[in-house]
Amino acid sequence: MDNMDTSFKEGTADAGLLKRTQSAGVTERVRQHLWRIWIGDVSVGTLLQTEDLREYTQFGQTVSNSTTFWLEEQQKVLYVGARDVIYALNTNNINDQSMKMIRWEALPAKTKDCLNKHRQGFENCHNYIRFLRRFNGTHLYACGTYAFLPHCAYVDIKRFTLSAPFEGKDSCPYDPTVGYTGLVADNKIYTATLYGFHGGQADIIKSFDGRSLKMVDSVILKAPNFVDSMLVRESVESSEGDDDKIYIFFTEKLGDENAFNGKPLVSLVARVCKSDEGGNRTLQKKWTSFLKARIVCSIPEYDFNFNILRSVFVFNQKPWQNTIIYGVFGSQWQNIQISAVCQYTIADIRKAFEGPYKEVQESARWWARYNGAVPTPRPGSCITDAFKKEGIKTSRDLPDNVLEFVKEHTLMDEEVRPVGSRPLVTKKLVNYTKMVVDTVTALDDKQYSVMFIGTADGWIHKVVHIGAIAHAIEEMQVYKEPQPVESLVLVGDQLQRTLIVGAQSGVIQVAVSSCHKYRSCLDCIMGRDPYCAWDGENCQEVQLQKDRTGLIQDIVNGNKGCLKSKADVLIKTVPKDVDLFLPCPLGSNTAAVLWTFGGKELPGGSEPRYQQDGKLLVVRQVQAGDAGSYHCHARENGLVYPVASYDVRVGQGWMSTIREIIYLFLIAALGVATVVLSILCIYLCCSSARRGKRRMHLSGASGMELQNVAGSTAGKCEEGRYSGERFLKIIPGEGATAGNHLSSTAAMVDLLPPPPPPPPPLPLAPDPATAGATPNGLAGLPHVLRKMNGNSYVLLRQAGDVDTISSHYHSFTEELSKMLEKRKHAQLVDKLDESSV
To answer: Is 789 helix (H, G, I), strand (E, B) or coil?
Structure first.
């Protein structure tokens, strides 16, 4: 292993991890060995989304901070302490109608006072239930932060009602975010947390009979984070009449950098005796049995320590000597996501507390092993039959020299090391938070421990402990929104085993197994799930099968029991000069992919066109020689089995054909566009040529030509001449004479829009006597000029005496020009007027 390459590839997750370790202040030796830890990193077999989980149930009530669980297994009731509320849920179905609820909110005055002391909008000014345990046969004991003024109360189990709350400053933390643990033993309450409004006082307190027992003032815990506690009934069947013990697990920050090889954070386990009552003169109302020892989770050969304890699960077994403790650990470098699970025995913990003590060397100011004389009876011990024979019946009878010694020597020299001296599970790129352990009897009649480990992003890792190894079965997404899993409990019997999960957003209940996800015999067997077995057609839950004779299961090796299988052949036809992608749909994330083509393993080093990207095979720029059979195999647990087969056929190059089709299409489109534009241009030209000219047919023989000489639609008048484009020609014919009325032929004019009918024509031969009486003063002029639409004039020219008309035409043209000049400054009349000539 020392000869392995310790370099990190650029662009990989490990390379990013190396950069983060450099910024985190990790030593060079640790950085060079970090990647080696990944060799023991557990790989998750199967990923399951929320929709893939069996019996997935979300608690229907709106609940926040559901982080305190207390299970009454015989009554099948789970008590949940959340924000401002306590629930009693049916473990068979958390949404059952039998659900009960107690609303417990802080008084408005207390909430207002909390907000004034902190700030408006401070979310923690609620009553967060942090303590919920069975107190006696009829009541639970509950405590909450109560808007930074802790209160406690008793809960009547039968009626599920709350007694009158009372202050509980020594039983619950003020701040809901600090570490806390507590338990009840024989009507005595043991709690450990940071007390006080500002959380500056750390203590382990025993409350009983209206009194309390605390730590000695000389023993100061520095920034502790209390994780969990447990009661071990060591007095049961004890040959020496020993007492029960309370064990408290926590993490502490060391003030002396030289202590424990310079590690600034350490995980510890403290021990006190249940019957401790304090001393008589020395250590009055103080612990006489408080001792602590370091608990270690590390990889010795790499000198790497997981020194932050996050949670503890106690697996109680009878007798108590078989009790197993699981610890979930993380690294002290917060920007490095790496977690581990270590396993301990109660015997190893007892051994540490029975060993030598440590003391502070004043000259060097660091902890060292104490080699001096130890007084009797042994300091920190519980009262036994041997003590009672010497007249020491309680802790009040202990000699002063024993109590003085325990004040100065609270730390043990020996460390509590894990089983096998190394982690049971290590996992990179994840932060573990909580865990529970179930024991399952497999088809081989052996019991296997199955661990359910919660993560900081709302997932559950399911890991089975097989001998000295751990195999990750699956990873289940419990919460769609990433959030830390803060509570876990296993409920139900072997026939209906479920897992209840608590987090900030609510409570979830899921089945412990999802055997239906395995579609083949190999998937079911190699999953190595003690809950699942193959019946010949499907993967079934073992506990639900009454007849187990035909079931197949291999937990130890995960490679026996299934016949050889063949993968279906898929035909893929691809053209030349394109990239070919062949997927390998593995059902397990722990299997390795093996691709073959023509009996040779791919990708080959001599042919760079073949590349493997995870489970995908990529063939670059396919050629005719790449046609053939491709096979994907999975290699797992010493077994190689087929997963997918492809018959690849390479066709002629079609890229050029597509290009030609595109070119032809573009040419055709341009031709159509050209034709359309040509037609449009011809139409516009014809329309413009006809614009302003219209013809009309008269039934008479005479023809007339109309000229628009004024108005908005008139042509330009330039140097006394009129544009020829503005004449409307009337084709002469036989019919009415020049004296006919113009209105008789106006209906035949093809004009858009048609003008209104013109007024009757004036007489062609004016009366000289009345010439001077004409309205416009144009005496003697022929009435050939008519006003049209109030602002235009029309000159009528008849086919008759050309000379007469011509003379009249030029004479009235000059007069008309003068008249129009005057009318520039005059307002046009709205109605037709015979005088406008």
So the answer is: coil
For domain 569-653, give the fold. Answer: Immunoglobulin-like (2.60.40)
Token pair 């007027």: residue? 833
Tokens 């809901």 belong to 176
- Residues 776-819 pLDDT 10s: 444 444 444 444 444 444 444 444 444 444 454 455 566 667 76
Beta carbons of 757 and 746 less than 8 angstroms apart: yes
Give the H/E segment covering residue 85.
strand 85-90
Domain ranges of the chain: 7-37, 518-563, 569-653, 657-691, 697-823
Give yes or no on whether 518-563 and 569-653 have one common fold.
no
Q: Given phi > 0 = left and psi -120 to 50 = alpha, else beta, which region is 597?
A: beta
User: Alpha carbon of 149 to those of 65, 181, 281: distances in Å?
Assistant: 18, 18, 33
Q: How confident is the model at residue 410 (pLDDT cuts 50, 70, 90)?
A: very high
Alpha-carbon Rg for the chain in angstroms: 50
Interval 576-603: pLDDT, tens: 888 889 988 876 777 788 888 887 888 7
Give dist(CA 630, CA 595) in Å, integer.
7
If you search the block for the tokens 């024993």, which residue do you land on?
A: 402
Assigned token pair, 611? 């590349």
SS3 state at 595 = strand
Helix (H) or strand (E) holding 677: helix 655-690
Task: Assign domain 518-563 one CATH number from 1.20.1250.20, 3.10.20.740, 3.40.50.720, 3.30.1680.10.
Answer: 3.30.1680.10
Quote the mean pLDDT of the chain.
79
Percent of the chain with pLDDT over 90: 45
Single pTM value for the model:
0.70
Give the pLDDT score at 224: 93
Phi then psi for 683, rounded to 5 degrees?
A: -65, -40
Type of residue found at 150: P
438-471: per-residue pLDDT in tens?
A: 999 999 999 999 999 999 999 999 999 998 889 9
To 5 degrees, how large is the angle CA 779–CA 784–CA 786?
100
At residue 606's C-alpha, the angle toward residues 588 and 577, to 5°, is 80
Burial 376-398 (b: 16+ CB within 10 A, else e): ebbbbbbbbeebeeeebeebeeb
Lookup: tokens for 627: 């046609």
